[in-house]
Dihydrodipicolinate synthase family protein (Mycobacterium syngnathidarum), 292 residues
Amino acid sequence: MPSSTEIHGILAYPVTPFADDQRIETDKLAALVDRLVTDRAHGIVPLGSTGESAYLAEAEFDAVVDTTIGVVDGRVPVVIGASDLTTANTIRRARYAQRAGADAVMVLPISYWKLSEREIAQHYAAIGAAIDIPIMVYNNPATSGIDMRPELLVQMFTDIDNVTMVKESTGDIARMERLSELTDGVLPFYNGSNPMILKAFKAGARGWCTAAPNLLPQPCLDLYAAAQGGDWAKAETIYTELKPFLEFIVAGGLPTTIKGGLELLGRGVGDPRPPLLPLDAGGREELRRLLL
């Protein structure tokens, strides 16, 4: 089981490549993951929002898990996004990830009905009881419709043995500061809101969960290195240059913009799965300007 110090830095989200017939292209996924590791990402996090996990059948989910873990081959930690609408299938996904060799799972509470804090805590407790590897609790109300207060996150960190870290994606830096305050800095938290990464590192974020390294790996690494070294002037300069790109990929939807960017770079992995659509002509030109 990896320690919290081993899951750190730039945690890269790969997209899921699709052929024209909507079949997952595992060869392209393997090449993409290998490039992310070769480009020195500190960890790989497939099957989150960027990986279009909500649109995958279970056999497809399993294929992405197997391909990713096989290609990474222990070079860096792999955190599998295991979220699903039901507790039962979230457990199925988490168990599959553990058997395949994942270092941890990331779980976003997804529900048609708005969940109470009691229901959220029970959801995570059931998942924790079913697996032995760490759980990264993922708070992203923009996609899940469920917002977990820092106090609830700390309660689950305290009560559930393998809830060991939090990914905070609200874009509210006060959330991270509160997590640190409530636990005296013991609870590792990670930034999932691209445009607030500089503030997040200043608040003590252990890492940055991001799709950006698919297109611009080096600036992400440089920003992290500057933050780790306490060179905030350099970090500010890098962030200022990177910020328009980060804002663009978030505003345009990560699967859509990252896949559009990979095509522009000559490494196309197909279009997003409907109902998502590829970038329109204006979006392509704007992204071309930001990348090339």
